[in-house]
Amino acid sequence: MDWSTRCEPEAACPVCSPLILAWLIIGAVAAGQRGYYGDASTNCASVGTIAVTIVAGPLNYMGINPTVDCDYPQPTS
Q: pTM for the full model?
């Protein structure tokens, strides 16, 4: 094997960064279209739902509707 032609990790996928960026932008657009940014409540569930919607990216347009439900136990007095 010729080690001089070996791909370096940062050069192995020159389209990976733009592809990941496009994926996340599509997810952010999907969250905006669902009206998640306009929600005044900033609780765990709404922030988590926005995050998983952005990470899901184009899958949102294939029928995936990720949501997060945060139920914390209430402290006893």
A: 0.71
